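The aim of this short unit is practical: by the end, you should be able to scan a pair of folded records and say something sensible about each. We start with the first protein, listed as its amino acid sequence and then its C-alpha cells.
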Amino acid sequence: MLRFLWCCFLGVMFAPALAAEKIESVRIWPSPDSTRVVFDVSGKAQYRLLSQNRQTVELEIANILSPSLGKMSGESELVKDIKVKKLPGNRGILLQVELTRAAREKAFTLPPSDRYGHRLVLDLADVQAEQAAATPPPPRSQRAGGRDIVIAIDAGHGGHDPGAVGPKGTYEKHVTMAVSEKLQALINKEPGFKAVLTRTSDYYIYPSKRPDLARNKQADLLVSVHADAVTNRKAHGASVWVLSLRRATTEVGRMLEQTEQHSELLGGVAEVIKDSANERYLAQTVLDLSMNHSMTTGFEVARRVLAEMGRVTHLHKKEPQAASLGVLKAPDIPSILVETGYISNPTEEQKLKSASHQQKLANAIFRALKQHFTDTPPADSWLAQRQGAAPVNRTTAQNTPARTATTTNPGSSANTARQQPASQQRPAPVIAGPRVATSAASGPAVHTVKRGETLSGLAKQYGLPMSVLRNHNKLKSDNIQVGQVLRIPN
C-alpha cells in the first residue's frame, strides 16, 4: 500500500515535466494589413492570451517549460521582437510579442496536418493598415479619351497556405502567382487595359477579402487563378467556375441586412435619399441589377476563357461550372475562377511548373478577356470611345457602367438615367466599386417557346447564364416544350 501511494506521489510530482512540450520553430507570415505568427510545437499548447496593451501581446503557455523559440523564419514590419521567459515555479513560459504599432490580436491552436504538426497561431491585424484600407479610394483619374478597363487578378492561396501540393512537391501558390504575374504583364501592355494583383508576393489573404480588394480598385472583372487537386491522380484538365445563383442571392440579402453599408452601395445617390424610406428599396434595385449584370458577364467571360484554354490544354469541363466559392462571393463584381489544371496529376504538375506552359495559359486567358471587352467595352472606357458610339443592344447595355445620376420611383418598374450635356454635368455618382448595368432596352418580359428552340439557345439569345433562366422559371430540368411561356429576367 505504501509503495502504491509513493508511486502516485511521484507521478503527481513529475507529471508536468513528463507532459512538457517545446517550441520547435517560429514562422512569421506578413501581408499588407496583417501578420500571422505560427509557433510550431511538439504537442497541443495550453495557452492563455494576455493583452496588456496593443503594442505588446503576451501569451502564457502552461505546458512548455523550455524558454527556447527554436528556428525562426520570416519577418514583418509589424513585429519588432519576440521574447520568451520562464515563469517561476515551473508554471510554463511567457511569450512577449513586441509590435511596432497597434494591432488587434487573435490566438488559436491548429491540429497536425499533412505538412505540419501542432501549431499555436497568433494573428495580428494591423490597425493602421485597416484604417487606411477603410478610407474610400480617390476618384479614378480619367485620361483624355476615357478610362482604362481594370482587371483584378487573384493568385490563389499564398503565405502559410500553400494550396494543393503536387506529387513532386510543387506548391499551388507558386503556380498561381507565376501565371497571375504573366497575365498581368500581358494586360498592362495592352492599350486601354490595366491589371492589378490582389496579392503581390507570398502572403495570405482570406478568400472573403479578395473581392473587397477588387471592389476597392473599381475592377471591371475579377479573375482568380488556381490549380485543382483530387485523390485520383488520373484526373486532369482545366475548368472555369462562376458564382452560383444561390450564393449570389445569399450575398445580396446579407448586404441588404447591413443597413450601414447602404450608402457605400449607393455611392453618390445615397446623399439624395439620405434618411429616406426608399433607401433600402434603391439598394435592392441596385444590387439586383448589379447581380444580373455580374453573373451574365462572368458566365460569358468564362465561356470565352474555356474556348481559348482548350487550344493550349485539355479541358476537364467544357462548360462553366457554378459554385459557392468564397472568392466568387461578390454579386456586384463579375468574377471567374480559373482552375489551370490538376496539380495532383504527375504529368500535369510538370506542365504547371513549366514557365512556357504558364505563359500559354496566361496568353489564353488574356485573349479571352481582350475579346470580351473589345466586343462589349464599358461606355466610359478608352476602348469604347476609340471604337466610336457604343452600339445600343442588350449585350452592350448589360456591360455598361452607370456613370450618370439615376432617379428612382418606387412605383415604376425601371430606373431612368438622364444624360446632361458634358458642359453641364456634375461629377456622376459611382456605385462604390461595381459597375452597375443600365439597360436602354429591357427586352421582352416573356418568351413563348417555338419549335426547335432549346433552353441553352434562349439563354444565349438573351445574354443570360442558363442557370439564371432555369432558376428564374423554377424549371426542374433543361427540357422545355413548344408553347411554354418563359419569363425573361430584365
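Turning to the second protein, read its sequence before its C-alpha cells, just as you did above.
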Amino acid sequence: MAEVLPVCLKIQTTFPTERLAAIAMGTLSVDEELSKFVRRKFTLIAPALEGGKDDDKPNGTMSSSERVVLQTDYEASTDRMLRVAVNGYFENLALVLQVMRHLDEDVIDGDDCNGDLEGVQGVEVGLTGNGATGG
C-alpha cells in the first residue's frame, strides 16, 4: 500500500477546449516526479453549466459547455518538497501555454491572424493547391 503523504495541493487550470486540456495533460504527464516523496495525479474535469444559456454569453467568452479544467493533485512529504515540485510544474505549464498560444493550429484559422502569415515559419503565402510543393 502506498504511503500517505501529509501535504496536499490541488491546482485547477481552465482551458477553452477539451483538446487543448488533453494536450496540456499529455505534455505535462510525460515526466515523472523526481522525488519519491512527491506524487502527482492529472484529471480532466468538464465543469457543470453555471446556469443560463450559452447564447447569453458575450462574444469572446468561453461557454460553460466548452471549458475544461485540468486538475493536478499534488501530495508531498514536506512543504518544501511540495514547493519545489509545484514551482517546476508552473514553469512547465507556462511553457505549454506559451507554445499553444503561438503554435496552435487554431491561431492560423482564427481571427487573431488577420490573414497576414508572411514570415511565419512553414507557411508559404500566396501559393494555391497546384504547384505549391514545387513538384
